[in-house]
Amino acid sequence: MERIIIKTQTARSEILIGENWESVDGMLPGSGVVIITDDNVLDIYGDRFPQFPVFSIAPGERSKMFEVIELLAEKLLSAGIDRTGFILAIGGGVVCDVAGFLASIYLRGIRCAYVSSTLLSQVDASTGGKNGINLGNTKNVLGNFRQPEFVICDPSMLHTLPDEEFFSGLAELIKTAIIGNERLFEMIERNHEGILRRDTELLSLMIGMSVNFKASVVSEDEKESGLRRILNFGHTYGHAIEISGLARHGFAVASGMEIATSFSLLKGLISEREASRIRDLLNQFNLLREYNIPDYQIEQLILHDKKKTGTDLHFIFVNGIGKAVVEKIPVAEVLSFYKYYKSGKQIT
Ligand SMILES: NC(=O)c1ccc[n+]([C@@H]2O[C@H](COP(=O)([O-])OP(=O)(O)OC[C@H]3O[C@@H](n4cnc5c(N)ncnc54)[C@H](O)[C@@H]3O)[C@@H](O)[C@H]2O)c1
Predict the structure, then answer these.
(1) Is residue 166 in a domain?
(2) Structural domain includes residue 168
């Protein structure tokens, strides 16, 4: 088991990788705990949950909305949860985002922790203290930064994950490798079969590398005013694809990374060989798909990107495998590169 500590100016969070999730029972207070999960996770793991009230939400992105937060808050009130209460989220990124946001605002904030049950949430969503819900079509508009007290990432839970969800998470793992860890990138390149088998030891090692990288970034820049922005590599175009409803988060980010890689190549930040290695790795796991989204729709969605400041946007480029750089560029440039890329002129 690997224990990674995240220390920010205001909080401390422990990420336990390779820990048996059922040991969470011994880490909770004796009373005042409620569990938030979703219906799929409840079906598979519910009979082994600690003995506390369970509130389950519908699986998927549609639960990341204010009505769900309101409903859950009413349930907490009816269950008599006061300021000493504790929310345990057991689920993927959606459950952690919803439960984390609720814990941060209920009675001005109560304690919380996560058992992270998808690859995406283990490598990314549950580390860093960001939470959020969507507003209509715009992702994560309402939310804040708040570190859970601890997060358990048990890769054995990934054996029950549908393929689509597993590969969606793999894309985020590859993202971390591209922006921050060349050794992880090579490990993914070399372990195709072990990854497909969902080898628990291998995944523990890789999740640990990913979380370590994210933890170092978050410890330096919790509120995303600088360095943390690099974690958004692939997300400018990716979010636009995801919101269109055509792709799961990771697949959308994979396509976003491919476009951002081409953009980086055009800018002379990476070599053709490096760009090919990135594309090959994404293709090796079948993460790149064709999405027929009209240009105007992508443009609208990019224009609504919350990372946009005025007419500029912080865009993340890759400048070598394992390295990324943030540049503030005009939104118009992001849009025109997208058109250029779509017209099939991207550099190969
Ligand atoms: N807060 C952050 O820093 C951050 C970072 C990245 C992504 N996110 C958010 O995370 C969300 C996506 O997370 P996700 O991909 O985990 O999606 P998810 O939470 O919707 O889970 C995906 C599906 O897998 C099911 N599931 C979960 N665990 C399972 C298991 N062990 N076995 C079988 N089925 C299981 C769920 O019921 C759901 O149907 C997005 O809303 C995204 O915005 C947040």
Answers:
(1) no
(2) no
Work out which ligand 1 atom sits closest to the CA atom of 121: 16
Task: Name the residue at shortest CA distance from atom 12 of ligand 1.
Answer: 93
CA 111 to chain centre: 21
Range of the domain at 188: 174-345
**How much is the pTM?**
0.93
Average pLDDT, the chain: 93
> Same structural domain for residues 154 and 189?
no
Residue type, 115: V
CATH number of the domain enclosing 56: 3.40.50.1970
**102 and 190 part of one domain:** no
Residue 83, pLDDT score: 97
SS3 54: strand
Cα dist from 166 to 211, 244, 333, 342, whole Å? 17, 21, 33, 28
Q: Are residues 318 and 267 in the same domain?
A: yes
Model pLDDT for residues 284-338, shown as the tens digit of each residue: 999 998 887 777 877 777 777 656 667 889 999 999 999 999 999 998 899 889 8
CA distance 228 to 149: 20
Which residue's CA is the nearest one to ligand 1's atom 19?
92
For 6-24, how does the pLDDT look when each residue is reduced to its tens digit (9 = 90+)? Answer: 888 888 999 999 999 999 9
Q: Say how many Å lie between the CA of residue 93 and the centre of ligand 1.
A: 4
How far is the C-alpha of 54 from the C-alpha of 95, rounded, in Å?
13
Q: Are residues 9 and 101 in the same domain?
A: yes
